[in-house]
Specification:
The protein is mainly alpha-helical. The chain has one domain. Helix content is 81%, strand content 0%. The chain is built from 4 helices and no strands. It has helices spanning 2-14, 16-23, 31-57, 61-67.
């Protein structure tokens, strides 16, 4: 998740000239916008990981190993 966020931030910083024409009144270097997008993506990724993690924590490790 961190690698994806870092790569996306670097990519959007590199694409600033192209992005500036689509943003309208918002600056392409607006730190609040960058922070908000990073926070939303991080929360979405954490929410997506929550269900499999809870499901994996409910499994007895000895039973899972015996099944393999």
């Amino acid at each position: 998740m961190a690698i994806g966020i870092a790569a996306g931030t670097a990519g959007s910083a590199a694409a600033t000239p192209v992005l500036a024409s689509y943003l309208g009144p918002v600056s392409a270097h607006d730190p609040v916008s960058y922070g908000a997008v990073i926070a939303v993506l991080a929360l979405t990724a954490l929410a997506a990981m929550l269900v499999p993690v809870v499901r994996a924590l409910r499994i007895d490790p000895a039973r899972a190993l015996r099944h393999e």
